[in-house]
């Protein structure tokens, strides 16, 4: 059996009931076969892959808090510190009822290669809890965040592990967590990113993942001789990534006609009204059913459906495994030319293969959504030098980083004989740097 297949089998055996983690490991290792086979003897001897798929540390803890009725609630908190070869652990905190150890491990594993691709010194980690902020009062969210940080603060720090937002963790949650960290540890340091602008946050971090996705999409289309201007786009999700992807797509001359949330989706043939979307989601924390009040000519549909709309470009920006084989078939049948992932692993393995086989340009999340974590690293730099850069400065650094990622993944794919396969290209480009650093640091 090949080394890659042996390690995939080992991961499935050692981590039962963690299908998302298995999926992420399979996707990465299978696409790295050519590099691994060329170094098989050395990698085997050093158990390089076995070390790569085993987190350096996994923390799981109780998070008790009191709800507005005086009832004690108990959630589970996680932080997986996956790999620190190239820098302090860095990655978001997901607050969603679906969170379990396997999901945090898949996200942490992906984060290793994504963070490497940014070219900045950040290792891979991820965390979160099965707490659901939806429908909770501000006081309840604060009680949860304070309890969560009371335990987590023992394991993180500006030079150790720097968490940030992800699904369900936005500016409000980061603020409550930062306040509690400072109170317990007595340190005013850049221990979290995505902070508010009055206490150490970076301009453009809020926009960064969505904007970065469009910078990469525009460059990738250009590499393939196609213009973004005038294209019709389907976006899924309506959270942080989806909102700012929609905003930047429209600024760059494309028209976004869909957004979605966990209960339904909107079709707006005239182009999504971003100001309305921000008011509904960022201010009112309401459902997309509200959208029709702002745009009477739009349609609201219950359930799933954005991938059945005829578009040129699809940008999945909601969550993992939200674009299935039948969605990929519908996109291809409707003439879609590119799928660029704003979310982490939104496309199933079968759907990815189908899109690639049918000539659709496919940019994997670890490259396409790396703008968020890259800008988090820029926030860390600003915190270290106790300075704040202008929006334009951060945004132009972000754009450069995304353009570089685009070229690096494209060049790596071509170098190894997989021209146009950006999944292989992104994985190889991310992997090479991590392996080099791990090898240089000895058996740790
Ligand atoms: N916020 C960031 O900087 C980054 C986020 N990501 C990824 O982007 C994705 C979205 O994250 P954010 O926008 O930050 O979260 P968010 O909490 O702001 O928004 C998540 C959106 O996805 C929708 N959603 C969640 N589960 C869904 C489901 N099962 N079906 C349909 N819609 C669903 C929610 O309704 C919401 O609109 C996630 O995969 C996250 O890991 C990736 C890189 C950075
Ligand atoms: O900004 C960060 O540190 C993390 C962003 C994130 O969670 C991700 O890239 O998936």
Features:
444 residues, alpha/beta, Rossmann fold, 3 domains, five-stranded mixed beta sheet, 12 strands, binds 1,4-dihydronicotinamide adenine dinucleotide, binds 2-oxoglutaric acid, Glutamate dehydrogenase, glutamate dehydrogenase (NADP+) activity
Radius of gyration, taken over Cα atoms and rounded to an integer in Å: 21 Å
SS elements, strand count? 12
The residue ranges in which pLDDT falls below 50 over 5 or more consecutive positions are none
Sheet with the most strands, sense and barrel status: 7 strands, mixed
The proportion of residues in beta strands is 15-25%
The bound ligands are: 1,4-dihydronicotinamide adenine dinucleotide, 2-oxoglutaric acid
* Arithmetic mean pLDDT: 98
Corresponding CATH superfamily of the largest domain? NAD(P)-binding Rossmann-like Domain
Which class do the helix and strand fractions yield? alpha/beta
Shape: globular
Account of the protein in words:
InterPro entries: Aminoacid_DH-like_N_sf, Glu/Leu/Phe/Val/Trp_DH, Glu/Leu/Phe/Val/Trp_DH_C, Glu/Leu/Phe/Val/Trp_DH_dimer, Glu/Leu/Phe/Val_DH_AS, Glu_DH, Glu_Leu_Phe_Val_DH, NAD(P)-bd_dom_sf. The record marks 166 as: Important for catalysis. Substrate binds at residues 90, 111, 114, 165, 376. It comes from [Ruminococcus] lactaris ATCC 29176. It is a single chain. The chain has three domains: 1-54, no CATH class; 55-188, Leucine Dehydrogenase, chain A, domain 1 (Rossmann fold), CATH 3.40.50.10860; 209-368, NAD(P)-binding Rossmann-like Domain (Rossmann fold), CATH 3.40.50. The chain contains 18 helices and twelve strands. It has helices spanning 3-14, 19-31, 33-38, 40-45, 48-52, 101-117, 138-152, 171-185, 205-223, 240-251, 274-283, 291-294, 325-333, 349-357, 365-368, 371-385, 391-415, 422-440; strands at residues 57-66, 72-83, 89-95, 123-129, 161-164, 232-236, 255-260, 264-267, 299-302, 313-316, 338-340, 361-363. It is globular. The two termini are 26 Å apart.
